[in-house]
Amino acid sequence: MEEHPILEKTQSEKKFYILGDARVLNTKAPAIFSSIMKKADIKGSYEPFVITPGKLGDAVKEIRLMNVAGANVTIPYKESIIPYLDDLSEGATIIGSINTIVTVGNKLKGYNTNAIGFMDSLKDAGLDVAGKSVLVFGTGGAARAVVFILNWVRANPILITGRSQGKINAITKQIGGQSISLSTLPDSPLPVNLVVNATSVSSPGESPELAALVQQLQLPNCEMVIDLNYGRSRNFWQDMAQSKGIPFMDGLSSLANQAKRTFALWTGIDINHEDVLAAIQDASTAAD
Fold first, then answer.
1. What totals of helices (H) and strands (E) does the chain contain, helices first?
2. Pairing with 254, which of 140, 152, 200, 218 sits 20 to 30 Å away (CA)?
3. Catalytic residue of the set 14, 15, 78, 132
């Protein structure tokens, strides 16, 4: 059973942070977790922590001195922060990417709840991918987590595509899956049952080239398209799925599940799933 040091600390206020580059100032995570903390009757703060390039090691030292109860890690530090931690969960070790830090005594332990959150979202959708073919877009930490959990639930084959062949090769070597060239995808029908976008790109304006390529995909056997992003006013993954009559799911369910898992690691409290969804939706409404 995991230790939950937050419950053992005597100070009334608990400190939580989300670590990232300047983009972390735009995240909705503080609003989401502050709402969850209030619902769970935990007093404290959850704030963005901007880490400038080249200062990751110094930032982790500062986090240690601040005696935080836990932290989230977002782009671009999910992989590069690992050498500065004391320990990793088994899943995080295999994935090579973390999104959650738990303070255990005076040590920092890294976890990856992206993977288990994605698995939970598959269950929420009633989707059993054992023995089914999956096409994963992306080569970053989110993609690594998706490929890891797809291997875990015995999806086969798992095809991975993206702009960096070197990163794809690293994923297939360390975690599993097979490489498929991005440029050849529209050339013929793809015999895949599930498509997962694990990139950060969903709006046409973010990448007109990828939007055009995705619209050309031939997916005669596809049962669902999943985009790990959510809240975009225009989503070319959703547009593609609707044009082909394929069910679509955005990243809201996965985000809620990983937040639920993260909060349990920090506190030992299994927060109600509906409360997490409500916190996310409230944060989204407030940001609009």
1. 10, 12
2. 218
3. 78
